[in-house]
Amino acid sequence: MSPASEKLEDLAVEISNCRACARLVAWREAARDHPRSVGDPSRYWARPVPGFGDADAELLVVGLAPAAHGANRTGRMFTGDRSGDFLFAALHRAGLANQAESSSLADGLTLTRTYVTAAVRCAPPDNQPTNEERTCCAPFLARELAILRHVRVVFALGAFAFEALLRDGPLRLEGAPRRPKFAHGLELQATSAFGEVTLVTSYHPSQRNVFTGLLTPGMFDQVLQGAIAHLD
Questions:
Q1: Are the beta carbons of 92 and 144 closer than 8 angstroms?
Q2: What is the pTM of this model?
Q3: For 171-190, how does the pLDDT look when each residue is reduced to its tens digit (9 = 90+)?
Q4: What are the structural domain ranges in the chain?
Q5: Which CATH architecture has domain 3-229?
Q6: Residue 65: closest CA among 180, 164, 151
Q7: Distance between CA 158 and CA 160 in Å, rounded?
Q8: Which parts of the chain register pLDDT below 70?
Q9: 162 phi and psi angles, rounded to 5 deg
Q10: Using an 8 Å Cβ cutoff, are 157 and 65 in contact?
Q11: For residues 137 and 18, what is the distance between their CA atoms, to the nearest angstrom?
């Protein structure tokens, strides 16, 4: 196991034991007994969800937060819900994932050159964490990026992740007098504690965005290919 893998495993243990935000602790655990719960409630992860992927990743994908009956159930980011189905299908088309499906920790999914994480690690009510909860989680994101020293592109899914990266750290824009507003398809040069990266943005692959046509697979693939171009 590489030093980066060991550090990520240690951080994952720390993340999964966090109980800093009382509102999120209550909600993530209550999801097991919600009428929409999936399968056996006793099998819900119902804890903060660490990131996962290639410890030598060059592409860091940052989402919003675990879904109550997705990652909060399975224990892996973007796993077990439709947003994850959308994301991993796209990563598979791009050659960054070995399969398009994402259903459980034991489904055999592996990522290449890519690490997936989120701005907030616990499932929030109505999929809406607060700014204060984002700030509380910010050190975890900064520490992941510090460990993933090969990252050259950070891919922010949605405005909330964009704000988590720029308002709470760990990125700073180069040569920008003020932070631009979030928009789909931005490409911005930024610096982290360990060097320069390109920040790329997309609408979040939420059910609402996909069902309303705000985000299509073609739109996402185009932005993802732009991100990958910065790796070559």
A1: no
A2: 0.96
A3: 999 776 678 999 999 999 99
A4: 3-229
A5: 3-Layer(aba) Sandwich (3.40)
A6: 164
A7: 6
A8: 176-177
A9: -55, -45
A10: no
A11: 10
